[in-house]
Amino acid sequence: MPLRDEDVRVDLACGPDAAGRWRGWITVRVNAEALRPLGLHPDQPMSKIVGPERPRWWYVGAARTERAACQGDSGPATGTTAGIPT
Question: What does the alpha-carbon distance between residue 14 and residue 35 come to, in Å, rounded to a whole number?
Fold first, then answer.
């Protein structure tokens, strides 16, 4: 890995959500100066997103996929492509 262990901090927190199900949250922190050699420091121009944003449907689709994965849904039934019968 291009980062030293002392430049990265990973925290894990667990607790019940609003519905009472247990969830885990991971926070990853990286020393900003350790990102500079990789061109990822926030002050470097190449670390900024340049280009068009993804369309809104892309985020909705990603959220739907994540939600299905969390609920144990294996995806569309056999014989369908993205929910469209084939």
Answer: 28
